[in-house]
Amino acid sequence: MCELFGLSARLPTAVSVSMRALARHGSQARHLGDGWGVAFHAGDDALLIKQPEAANDSPWVGFLETRRIRSRTVIAHIRRATQGEISLRNTQPFSRELGGRMHVFAHNGKLPVIEQRFASAFHRFQPIGSTGSEVAFCVLLERLAPLWERGVPSPAMRVDIVATLARELRELGPANFLYSDGELLIAHGHRRTQGNNEIAPPGLVTLTRCCMVDPDALSSVGVQLHESQYVTLFASVPLTDETWRPLEEGELVAVSSAQPVRR
Predict the structure, then answer these.
(1) What would the pLDDT profile of 212-260 be if each residue is shown by its tens digit?
(2) Which of 99, 175, 100 is nearest to 137 (CA)?
(3) What residues make up the domain containing 49?
(4) Per-residue pLDDT tens over the stretch 99-129
């Protein structure tokens, strides 16, 4: 299955991301994926870099491994195609503008009947590609749009809408996802293919840590924080030997600047 990674930091920090290391760590078959992408939020905008090819074959990956990009919120995705052809339009994360800021979404799982379930849901936001993941993102934005038309909605209002859609997605298939509007990073854990090939929880794990203790602890799995920092991390599988907390089946966690907002 696909691999997800999310980071929320207390302050903007210089982050280097190695998609090669994340892919090798997350896949038992060491399969580097049918595409990869990473989004770095910067205020109301986001820098999105993605390619529909294996991370090993991409010169952009080398750029990301050496370039220090400042961000408080990062979402990364390694794709293993299960729906839709291997192409840029089907490569995650996906991004759209809403309320004058960029929103970013990445999903892990297969939602085979989502197009039929939400066939009449699209108005402003239309899928570009042919994945159920992008359909889910467009449905989410359609539901959030009325809130943002009146200004910046409260975190509670935003989380409630995300949680409602998450419950509906769980009825269709594995629904692990990361979503950010530049202020909130919301993670939803469900089920994923485990080491014994069983589809079961956990779908995501999380860790909150102060990198002043060991700023290089994540470097072996492709994440380098270049300043002392307090961060909350989400990933498909634990990235270090520390005790990562598995998200319960159907658990949704919202954080802002690494601090919990709502669970």
Answers:
(1) 545 566 666 667 666 667 889 999 988 888 899 999 999 999 999 989 9
(2) 175
(3) 3-262
(4) 999 999 999 988 989 989 998 888 999 999 9
Global pTM reads 0.90
Q: State the CATH number of the domain containing residue 241.
A: 3.60.20.10
Query: Does the annotation mark 210 as catalytic?
Result: no
Q: Please tell me which residue in 2, 138, 210, 211 is annotated as part of the active site.
A: 2
Helix axes 132-148, 155-170, angle to 10 degrees: 150
How many residues does this entry show for the chain?
A: 263
Q: Please count the structural domains in the chain.
A: 1
> What are the angstrom distances between the C-alpha of 1 and each of 33, 68, 79, 81, 197?
9, 28, 8, 8, 10
Contact call for residues 185 and 258 (beta carbons, < 8 A): no
